[in-house]
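Long-time lurker, first post.

We've been arguing in lab meeting about whether zinc ion would sit comfortably in this protein at all. Half the group thinks yes, half thinks no, and nobody has a model to point at. So I'm putting the question to the forum: if I give you the sequence and the SMILES, can you give me back a predicted structure of the complex? Inputs are below. Any interpretation is welcome too.
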Amino acid sequence: MTRAFVAPSRYIQSAGVLDQLGTHVTRHGQAAFVIADDTVWDLTAEIVADSFASTAATYERAQFGGACTGAAIDRLTAAGADAGVDIIVGIGGGKALDAAKSVAARLELPVGTVPTIASTDSPTSSLSIIYADDGAFAEAERHNHHPEFVLVDTAVIAAAPTRWFVSGIGDALATWYEATATWESGGTMLTDDRPTYAGRELARTCHRLLHDHAEGAVQAVAVDSVTESVEAVTEAIVLLSGLGFENGGLAAAHAIHDGLTMLPSAESATHGEKVMIGLLAQLILEGASDETLADLTAFAASVGLPTALSDLGVTDPTEDALMDVGRVAADPDGPMGNDPIAVSAGQIAAALRVLDSPGPTQH
Ligand SMILES: [Zn+2]
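Top reply:
Settle the argument with this. Predicted structure of the protein with zinc ion, as tokens:
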């Protein structure tokens, strides 16, 4: 089977780097279509304007409504076509960036992503998650191209609510364990290729940076400070986890995340928070040692990530509810197919039941 490695063309990260947006746009043309919601635009409009002032490039801003739906993408695509632009730029959280990637794909234009929160590893990827009008997951759209540039201003990231940054740590933490499961099972990446050694090493580095710097980085972000730890962990969340999951493969942690989205009580939990619970369940299913599980649980607690179902808002789940999660997660055509251990819906429900118990020390 072929091995493959995929990536965005350019990744730029630093405090204050948003003032280079206009310069990066000029590598791809003269006119940009900038997709951002009102809140993000209030925070960034002035810097964006300044960044274009020193260049020959221009931009037109399009209002993003907050939901990455087929209808929103259609509306933005029509507006982008009317504007006659050379490049699409998404500024904001995962949904705005996903919408920008889909608009660019439809217009066959390059895209640049500017994440303003480090909550997931999506800014570097060639994927968009599309939602139905009622907010339910509709599809994961794969694009032929990656972003031409990913511009990450760590001052903006640090100023955003800390919960997003912590959630990004949860999403990134799973990358190494899922890449390892994929490697050992002979599984594949989203492109249906085998992972490369490079993809695996990036996932390993992601894990090391989180292990060494996450606690200090969260402490700094809580007071809106950018330190070297914040730089390291932002790179782990946005770049290394992004490259690591796309080039290493997803496994049980994300499969169980997908199952957890079935629970209405977990609705207010973030992607990364659900992935964290999925990761703990993955390790239980894989038969990880008590020490490994205790270390990971302690790490999660130290940065404010959930370690029990109740932390997601799920209290006293019924057996039926946990079996529903298990059935979605156990789909062998989903990420679970990359785990070396064949698991049933019942085994997943049993692992989640362990994460629903108070633990031996609290009895
Ligand atoms: Zn994820």
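For your lab meeting: The radius of gyration is 20 Å. The chain is about 50% helix and 10% strand. Whichever side wins, do check it experimentally.
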